[in-house]
Amino acid sequence: MIGGIGLAVLAILSVQYVPKPVDFCPGFLAPRVYVAVGIAGDNGFGVFNVSSYGSAYYQDCFGNRVPHNIFGVHTILAENGTFGTQRTNEGFNTPAGNWNGFINTIGVPSWCYYGFISGAASDVDTQEMQSGELCVPLVCRLSTSIIGQGTING
Description:
Layout: H1 4-14, E1 32-44, E2 47-59, E3 70-78, E4 86-94, E5 98-107, E6 112-121, E7 124-130, E8 134-135
Antiparallel strand pairs: 1-2, 2-5, 3-4, 3-6, 6-7, 6-8
């Protein structure tokens, strides 16, 4: 005969742990979001334009690019590459399984800029990438004038 305490212990010991079901993928790879980012600049019309290209795509466990919801953010960072110095950004959320985008900002002379992208899907870990730095050159203008007589060579 099992007493009240014995039944409680038996009931506790009888509860089974059932793990949360995980999507089964029989392929040879783990599904993943791949990201890429770059940065470039151009001095045109008196201002330095900073542009960043970003892309992200989902790959299933067989290595195929397939439609799948992916989301993330593409950003241009300034100075030290932290989010506190974010110059511009663009979020993305698409069921297509791939995304591409360009963002632009005006560069400040002597500041350095970085492209940054973060991409994820509900079933994979977040992937992040930062570009190399692009530093805006200083612009020096020298005006001269001659008072009296003389010439300037060179």
